[in-house]
Amino acid sequence: MYDLIIIGGGPAGLTAATYARRAGLSTLILEITVCGGQVINSQNVENFPAIAQIEGWRLADQWQKQAQALGAEIRTAAVTGIELRGDVKLVHTAKGDFEALAVIIATGAGHRKLDCPGGAELSGRGVSTCASCDGAFFRGRKVAVVGGGNTAFEDALYLSTVCERVYVVHRRREFRAERRLVEAAEGKTNVEFLTPYVPAEVAANELGRVASLRVRNVETGEEITLDTPGVFTAIGMIPNNAAFANVLTLDEAGYAVAGEDCESGTPGIWVAGDGRKKALRQLVTAASDGAVAATAAARYVNLLCR
Ligand code: NAP
To answer: Domain span at residue 153?
Structure first.
């Protein structure tokens, strides 16, 4: 039996573990893959306080080491649900059950998939959600990035250094990405903007890999076929909360409805990070959630054990 189980080893979960260990809680992190969350795919992080620039994987590595050095235990397991047994929370995983007095759900969000023909079928065969992982496969080639947010622009900027040409395909004329990123991309001679266009079809070649992306102008209906072997999608995230619908209140988009105190509404359970309904999803706000949730969990466990 642990004092605290943290589900998800991203920035929120790792920060929660650091705070929980410093408060003396026995702490287990259950992580489905590797710790670090989305930031491990960020080429460079330049907006984390007091760190001018750091590679995403390096920041994640330091984050994890800090939690482990304080005594947080980390196990790789896919959590399938939480069952309440009085004050005890039974956390079901594919590798068996774990018990704790308190739980922090910090499972973040996953990539939204392209919903045009070929989008899902060619995932991993030219359709990618990770420019920093897969960009090098398209060195000297033409690629497309779909989306108009920060991720799309970071991806486009990185790919512009590797690829011959980068098409940014976005459904509106305005971008939601930060001005600084948009201006940087506009300054690149090999980045071309296609707005307002949406993907109509990703087509395969005879080897079953991406050959081209057909895009449609949402105002005129005009279609263009881009001969690109790489299609990078950056069209937002979907929260990983579905397994916890019995202990969370979810909004229509699947985000957990919880305030800045991260309280889930179920005693002894908190929700932290990108999976929580909030105005700004950033490393710093995920870390903040982790600290808030762990501090509240420590108070809760101490009251139970008194
Ligand atoms: P995002 O900000 O939600 O942007 C998603 C983009 O995809 C939007 O431009 C959206 O268009 C478009 N989109 C959504 N659904 C679509 C669909 N079905 N078809 C075509 N386009 C679609 O997602 P994100 O860029 O991944 O960023 C997620 C969060 O992480 C944000 O809070 C972001 O600020 C943060 N982030 C921060 C940094 C940084 O600070 N360095 C880096 C990366 C991410 P509309 O604009 O029309 O809705």
So the answer is: 127-233
